[in-house]
Input
Amino acid sequence: MTLQHYLVISAILFTFGIFAVLTRRNAISILMGIELILNSCNLNFAAFSRFMTPPEDISGQIIAIFGIVLAAAEAAVFLAIILAIYREFGSIRPDEVDTLKG
Amino acid sequence: MQPLSNIESLLYFSPEILLVIFAAAVIILDLVVKDRESVAVAYLSLVGCLCTFAAVLFTHFSFGDEGPVSLFLGMIRLDVFSSFFKVLLLLATAATILFSLRSEELDARLKGEYYALLLAITFGMFLMASSTNLLMIFISLETVSLTSYILAGFLTHSPRSSEAAFKYITYGAVASGTMLFGLSLLFGMAGTGDLAQISGRLTELLAAGEIAPLAVLIAITFVLAGVGYKIASVPFHMWSPDVYEGAPIPITAFLSVASKSAGFALFIRFFYAGFGSTELMQAVDWPFMLAIVSALTMTVGNLAALPQQNVKRLLAYSSIAHGGYLLMGGVLLTSQGVGAILFYLVVYLFMNLGAFYVVVLIANEVGSEMVEGYRGLSSRAPLVAWAMVIFLVSLAGIPPFAGFFGKWILFTAVLEQGYYWLALVGLLNSVVSLYYYARIVKAMFFEDAGEETTNVSFSTGTFALLSVFVIPTIFIGFINIFYTFSNISVSVIPMQ
Output
């Protein structure tokens, strides 16, 4: 496995994430797309840390760990907001949540 | 100077530590005080702001002759620039706390969480203004974002507020994910997370032809998605009108001023410290990209504001347009340009918070956020109406108010660098913006309120707080001290 393999996989993950966010009609699927994006970044950091920096420098891996923590925090807030949306609108489809426009 | 170690840094980190302590104290006090109507937590958080202000001054003057200090092994940097933004952000937070005290929208049971979150978001913004490492940049940005999602959706049982939070987090999470991807590419190319080292490494590698300029440009564009979403620049501005309309008014005021200021602090530090060197810019022409973004941002903001009937939404578009004006200064790569941004942010803080305070007052008394609600205000509450006129005229940039001086300094800096087309676009936009500000003035002074003719009376405290915003909006342009200060604070950012 070379660096290129990791980068190609993370680029594919990132694209899938953006694709899911743009096309899915369900808030939970959008959240999954966002998680894919964040995980592709973590994969990038870990791979770069392994191949591009000296072995004793693990700052890239540290950033990846922080990335995982932040993704968890974001998922928690996102799910809480989805619950609030469900209570108010009775639906978690983004196209039905549209009282604000103009 | 060598970066300080973790233990040594703690002393210089006291403003942030104080904010966290007070955020925790607010939660505990909220548990102890049984009275639901009590406003003790609000005053405790005001005291927190005051103590933090003292700590900012202490840390600012204690590094003294040694110059800027790098803290926590180079993670964050304490310099005049970050102190400037800390004072600005504290002003915005204190004003927001005072607005929240007067606002009747907020649920009295959730006060403790509300003020604790406000202090937490200020903490995140402090870090945004001082981060010099990719990791810190991302963590601070996420701290601010996550907290502002919660605050935007803080009105339980309000569909508008929940919808605002939902739209905010969807755009925000994608934008920050994209930014993290860009940061990971930069990290990979440079092999380090430190902004100054990245700049040096990228310059070397580009000169040696080891990396393609396009790769750097793509990484910068990805990062711009995250920063652009924080300062609501086109094409990442779509969340802003909906969020500003749905969020509680004090939070709207806070987001439009503090979030934007912190975004610009991050923007200036990232682009100037990381990519300000001439060699880098010969390979990657990001200023031109920014010039286009800036022109688009002000045009879209101003044109979309024209037909708005909701004053909060109108001010949201106006704040997008102001983000565009501010970005003009970011294109220039001169200390004069950055100085102009900092001065304009001070001016913008007073006039925009003032305008939002009037919106809070009218929402309380008249119960309307629409332009119709402002009809006949000149006879019903003359002082508030005149204050609103001053804020709006200043936002439009008409002399002799502060907004005019802010724009004057900004446009002079733009013209001196030869960006004539950009200055022309900015000028045309200022003319367009007059129209929609004038619509509110027209409603207040030249339209009848109809059958509703009762006078609205406000307390002395209201007028005192209003004058805190009116007086600087009138006089700040004449007082040169602020402009000099914003000039000093940029002298510590490495320039080309």
